[in-house]
Amino acid sequence: MRTESEPQLALPFRIPVLRIFTLPFIRAEKRDVALLGILAAFLTVAGFMMQGNGAYDSDGWFLLATGKRIVEHGIPYTNPWSFSSYRPIVIQQWLHDVLLYGAYCLAGYDGAVIYQIVLSVVFCLSMCFAVTGFKSGRLPTHQMLFIIGLALFGAGIYICVRPTAWSMTCLCLTVGLCARWRRTSDWRHLVGLPLVTVLHVNVQAAMWPLDAFVAACFLLPETPAKLFDKSRNIIEALKETAPIYIAVFAMVMASVLNPYGIDGARYVIDSMGAASYGNVISEMKPAFEATKGFCMVFFAIGLLPIILTVWIRRKPIDPAMLLMLVVTLAAALLHWRNIWIFSLVSAITFASQLPRPATNKEPSKHSKTILLIVLLAVIGPISANAYVYATNGQMTCWESSEASASKLIDKVSDSDIYDPVVYAEDPVIYNYMEWKGLKVPFDLRPELWEDTGSKKTTSPYRDYVDSMKSAKKKAKYLAGNGFDFYLVSKKNASWYAKQLNLTRVSSSNTLVLLASRE
Q1: Three-state SS across 328-356?
Q2: N or C end of the chain, less CB within 10 A?
Q3: Over 70: is that where the pLDDT of 501 sits?
Q4: Are strands 422-424 and 485-489 parallel, antiparallel or unpaired?
């Protein structure tokens, strides 16, 4: 029974399910704190497990191939894997590829797992930097862990060997620097923004404009009341925001500091629409189509804590964070691959709403918090890779992918044909062929293979996508491209052999290599 000394809790705290989420934010009883920590670990592990392949990603082969090429021959400016030697290339993630290949050289495919863990740790620490920028004082450790867990539920899907974790880190650094500037009015915090851009444009050039957008959001005042204050002097407002204007301009200028100069800086513009052509790549589809409605779980987990905080505290959302939240939600709805951006922004928005207790100056407490953040960052990748290893025949996805294609690609390499042209039913095989040093018709970087003419854009990738629309178009595509070999699934091998008069050269556990009888 409730006593007079125990006042009735507000409504959200009395709802059984919501109590789990809300009570640890108003009291620090051991049971509630432990429960929130367990929930953070669950969200983290779930985020990494949903990726499904551990450190492996289908892009991994061409990322390794690119890193190897740069280490051995320097930055390429023409596509070394194209049959057309004139085709220009921009390696937007060249620095990431070099680091990934360095990890592979040190420890093989285990090096890729180590690199994934390092990326996870770096991101989680940058997330901590972003969250602590809004107000003086530190959040309790269990709250910080929960916020990072919220972010990792959506972001963990993309923390693998892709460069996306670097983009997550740069976004968090940008938020942290801008929030500190606005809180302290010290323009020196913004000096770091161009440096973030230089890092970003060299690890994932397509995403550096995201940092400029985030910084520009901080042109908005910190409260809605100040935003709609008609008595506010425009000149004073411009003076207040001048450092951000200058910083964003400096970020744009800094974006050319990459091996490709202006071509690297405008990579996102040149590549716009290429990956979404034909609606083939699942992550480029709208969220509901790509996930069959499961995306609602991600949106609910991202938005529910914010809604509850606004409800309980009766405090409006920071206009800068609200703008980011709305834009990233729309971006995720349009293209599922943007879910990581929404997850990060929603977690940071939630954190920006939380009150800060008095600053704890005990170094031991800070060290403990950092240690627990690192532990949270590590358990996700380790759990995901251990699960894959246990359920994939005691092999990583790298090893199983290589086992299915390696012998067949060696047959192609050993043939007497100079630069053999291979049709791959699954284009991921082209990524692996690049790793093996072979030329390919295209790979899963569609933007690198486009030729923009006076009338329309053409590319071998678009030709391939168009061929999938009907059996007639597929037959025409197969007959008209002069393929020397055909790498197809066992299930469909007989169809190809019959339709094109092919003979079996070799096979693996999942694939069959066919060639012309002539």
Answers
A1: HHHHHHHCHHHHHHHHHHHHHHHHHHCCC
A2: N
A3: yes
A4: parallel
